[in-house]
Structure formats: structure tokens, C-alpha cells
Amino acid sequence: MKFFSSNTGNFKSVLKKYFSFKNETTSLEPLSEFLEAIKKSEFTDILNFFKQNQNFAENFRYYLYRIFSGKPFNLSLTEASILSENAFVPELKKRILNKILPPVEHENTVWYLIDNVSFRPKKDLEYFQNLPDNELNELMQILGIADFIKSPEVKNELVFSMNILSWRVTGMALEVEVIKMAPEYRNFDNPFLALQNELESLAEDFNKKPQHQLNSKDSHYKQIKIYIQQCLDFVNIAFKNSSKYGISGKINHSLLKIRQQVSRILEILNLLVIDNEQDVIIKSKQLIFNILIYKSHKNNVRDLVNDSTTLISHLITSHTAETGSGYITSSPKEYFKMFRKAAGGGVIVGALCILKMIYSYIPGSEFSHAFLYSFNYVMGFVMIFLMGFALATKQPSMTATTMARVLSDVKNTKRNYWDFAHLVSKLFRSQFIAFMGNVLMSFPVAMIIIYALDVLLGINLATEKSDKFLKNLNFITSSSIAQGALTGVYLFISGIISGSVGNKTVFFKIPQRIEKNPLITNTFGHHFAKRLSSFYARNWAGIMSYLWLGVLMGITASVGSFLGLNIDTKHISFEAGNLALGIYGQGFNVDLKTILMGVSTVFLIGFANFSVSFGLSMLLAFRSRKITSLEIRKIISHIIKYFGKNPVIFFFPIRSILDENAKKLIKETTKSEDQLN
């Protein structure tokens, strides 16, 4: 077999070489060379050559019969482009391995034949799909394959393929965890069992009457279509219920697999339905195309990732978005309430800046410093969360999902785009006031604490570190903006963790397990168990999110030092505190230029924190809600225009006639989600 066909002649020379006589070979090389040759020629020339040289057409037809005769093609229908493993990671590994080292298939199958004839199945498929229908139909008639769909052997393969898929799908659909996802079907007959019985009955009819032909009025066909639709409804309900019950990666994979196999049964069934003579060649041609399409996508990693991660990202963003609307302020009262919450967070951050500086003076390895810094961050972040305060840049990963959910749940019209732009302005000003609350408190608190320590101990602890603090707050000479962007990535990851933990909490019913746990109830009482359950349900996802954010921020500098890389994290609130320490460490002997540079860098770091975390979260949320790129462009255009007309409203809570519309967007979205739950 030739991998490169640069030496392949034109189609006439290939036909004269192999088919000027009745060739008894079963080698695939003649077919491979012919396929490569016809792509270099005008298709009408090929048709004319066969018409004018009937002996070549007859010899080629005989050759095709020999190489295809007796070769089953059910594997191409039941295996190709269908998930084969029981989980995402094994499936991904298998597809990557198959791309690098294709598996060895049984030689007596159409699967093997296609693999060894077409090394570029996608391009070959595109070539045949781009041919005019009448010319392709004419070629099929010349080669005697225009009606092969009526062959009893072909029909038996199609029916057998449907039964294989039905047996597999029934086994998966009857798994306990899958049935739990669709409790609505508990009081109904299982549609998968009904589908299997109907397909087995159809197979018996074809065994008794090999010439039997299905049509659209056939009772078998109608009944099978009903059961197929019921099976697809089961899968859709199960996916819909995932917002209520949560879902595991394994069940997500099983449901995807069930949907693929049921859809494939419907595609095969439609090939068997012949209502008129025109359908014969149409269905014959469609079977060939279907096999090529399935084969060309069988090891597609992108399709696997898209299908497997879309629902999971939807679930993560759904559970994250439950609290997102609380971070979008509407009235002046809410606006200043956000400021107070952020100010509380700023107080804690100011203290954390002092503690981190003190930890840096403790002798020890990079590992010990990584542990201390992580402990410092985790302790402070969890305190901020449990005390109801706000860390400004933690909010975008929450609010982005709410914004995307609004877009997907509300009908997108020009008016709604303006309403959404106003909603964005409310989000932006909420983040702005949260920034100000954090910064305006972390700076003075750090200054007050370092001054108090100086008075109590008689030592200015910030002197040694002051140069470093001020140098790092120069966005021109330092990598502070890039490090702020890295922190934005960590903030995004912490949002994913929050959603993932929330999904698992719901799926595994952890709060209910805690409330009903005999050990807890017998030891501490039912009241304690109920309170602990409620605390877990409300706070555990947030605690884990802040915990991992703290760990990531705490270990980055030490890992970078170990690897010889200048990487660290920069957060607007902490850098405001560090600016205070830098100024105090210099004995306030700092020129105005340095102070202005430090203030500018602090806010640029904040912008990097916000833009990266919010941007990545929006991309994930857009993907999970299947919002198109065209819609995104329209949305961005309306936001820019709205900002040009009303820039002040992006920073301060000025009343607008669009306030009520924005409230309705949030309210309708929350209501639709509640209906699911």
C-alpha cells in the first residue's frame, strides 16, 4: 500500500493497468490508486470513459464485488464515532493512541478496507460530497451499486447493527445511577426495553422474509420511531435533572453514549425506509456517506472534549451562579453595602500583609515558606468568606456565570442587548466599589499595624522589605501585571472548584448524609446534625474554593524560586497593603513619582485580576450555555456603545429607566433555574 500517491498516474492509466482484463485480485492497491487518480481529473471524463469502455466498467464492477463480498460492515455503524469506554479519560487515551498508532482491524471487514484505502478520510469524504448528485448517481449505476441497499445481506447487516446498539444501550440505561437521573420514568414502562423488543421483532420479520422492505407507513417503523423518541426524551430529562441532582463524570459519559447510540439506531432505521424508486439510490448513497462520516470522526479528540465537557461546565457554572446575582448591586443601598463588605475584607487583607512579611523573616526552606504563605492566605480568605465580607476579585468568577445564564435563558433581541448592557454596568460598578472597599481599608490597616508594631517593639519591620515592595509596584520595570494576570487565572480556577464541589455536594447528597448520620445524631443530637448539614450545604463549596485559591497563591513564589523562574502572584488588595509597608519602611521618605507609580500599578494589577478571571469565567459560561460568537460580538458592541453614552453609570449607582428591565432579567433567570430545581 502506498502512503504517498505522487507517482500515481491518471485514472485511465490506472484502469488500463488493473482493469483491462478480469482481475481476480483481492488487493486493495488498485482501488486506492484509482481513488487518488480520480481526484486529479474531471469527474465527467471518468463517466464518459466508463460509458465508452464497457469492458473496463464490467471489470471494475467485478473487482468491487470481489473485495466487498462477504465483508460485514456492522462495526462501521456500531463502533465508529461512538464512545467506547466508560469514562472520559480512558476514552481520551484510547483516541490519542489510535491517532498515533491506528489499531489493527480484522481484514475481513469493511472497516479494515476503508482504513487501508483512504488515508485521508475527511478529504475523500469532502470530495465525494462536493460532486453533483446526478454525476455521482450515474457512477453508482455504472458500477452496479445504485440499489445495493435492497440486498438482503445489506438489510440484515443494518438490522443486526440496530440490535447490537439496542442491547448495549439497554444495559447502560438500566444502571441504577442512570435511572436515578430520571425518576419521572419510574412509573412508566422502560422505553429502552420496548425498543429492544421491537427491534428483535423486526429482525425476525427480515429472517422470515429476506425481501421484506420497510416503508414510512409500516407499523414496525412507526413504533420504533416512537420508542426512539421516548429514549431520547429520557436522556434529555436526565441531563435536565443534573442541575437538581448533580452528576458524576461517569454518568455524564454514559448518558452521552446512550444518546449517541440511540441516535445511530434512528439513522440506520431511516436507511431501511424505501417509499419510492428514487429512495433506493438515495439511501444506497447515504449508507456509503454515513460509513465514511462515522469513520472520519471515529478518533476525533475535539468532538470528545466538546461533548464531554459542555455539560460539566454547564453544571459548574450553574452551581457557581447560584450566588452570582448577590454580587450585582442595583440600588445605592446595595452599592454601599458592597463597599462595607469589601471594607471588612480589606481589614483582614491588611493584617495578612503584615503576617506574610513576618513569615518571610522566619528562616527555613522554600517548602516551609510555601506552607506558611499558603496557611496565611487560606486562613484569611476563609475568614473573609465565613464572616460575610468580600474579596473583590473573587466575585467575577461568580458573576460571569450569572451573566451568561441571563443571556442563554432570555430571548436575545436588540432591546434585551441594551438591558444586558445596563446589567453589565451594574456589575462593573459593583466590582469598582468592591475594589475601592478592599484597597481603601487594606492600605491604612497595614499602615496602622506596622506603626503599632514599631511602637511596641521599637523596630521598623518593614525597612528590610520596603525596597522590594516599591520595586514590585512599578509596572514598567517589574512583571507585576503578568503576575496579576496569573492571579486572575487562579481566581478563575477557584471559581471552577466552587462549582465542581457544589455539583458533587448535590450529586452525592452530602448534607442529607450528614443530617441522617447515626454517629453524628447519636453523639451530638439531631439538632446539631441538622445545623452541621445546613452549614455544609451553604459554605463548603466556598470554603474549598478559597482554600485552594490560598494554596495556589501561597506556593507560586516558592515553586518559581525552586524552578529558577521569576513568578509570583499579585492581588490588588495585598499590593495596596504592600504599598503602605513600602512607604512606612522608607520612613515616609518616598517621592511623589514613586507613590503615583505604586498607586497606578496597584489598580493595573486589579484590572489584570478582574479582566482575566472574569474573561475566562465568561468564556466557560458562554461555552456551557452554547452562546454563539455572533451573539457575543453583538453583546460587546452594545456594551461599548452604552459605555460611550453613560460612562458615569459604570462607576456610581445612578438611577436609570433600564433598572427595572435589568432586575427582570435576573429575576426571570433565577425563576427558570428554580423551576428546574
From TrEMBL:
<keyword id="KW-1133">Transmembrane helix</keyword>
<dbReference type="InterPro" id="IPR011385">
    <property type="entry name" value="Site-sp_rcmbase"/>
</dbReference>
<feature type="transmembrane region" description="Helical">
    <location>
        <begin position="540"/>
        <end position="565"/>
    </location>
</feature>
<feature type="transmembrane region" description="Helical">
    <location>
        <begin position="595"/>
        <end position="622"/>
    </location>
</feature>
<feature type="transmembrane region" description="Helical">
    <location>
        <begin position="432"/>
        <end position="453"/>
    </location>
</feature>
<feature type="transmembrane region" description="Helical">
    <location>
        <begin position="342"/>
        <end position="362"/>
    </location>
</feature>
<keyword id="KW-0812">Transmembrane</keyword>
<keyword id="KW-0472">Membrane</keyword>
<feature type="transmembrane region" description="Helical">
    <location>
        <begin position="473"/>
        <end position="493"/>
    </location>
</feature>
<protein>
    <submittedName>
        <fullName>Site-specific recombinase</fullName>
    </submittedName>
</protein>
<dbReference type="GO" id="GO:0016020">
    <property type="term" value="C:membrane"/>
</dbReference>
<dbReference type="Pfam" id="PF10136">
    <property type="entry name" value="SpecificRecomb"/>
</dbReference>
<dbReference type="InterPro" id="IPR023271">
    <property type="entry name" value="Aquaporin-like"/>
</dbReference>
<feature type="transmembrane region" description="Helical">
    <location>
        <begin position="374"/>
        <end position="393"/>
    </location>
</feature>
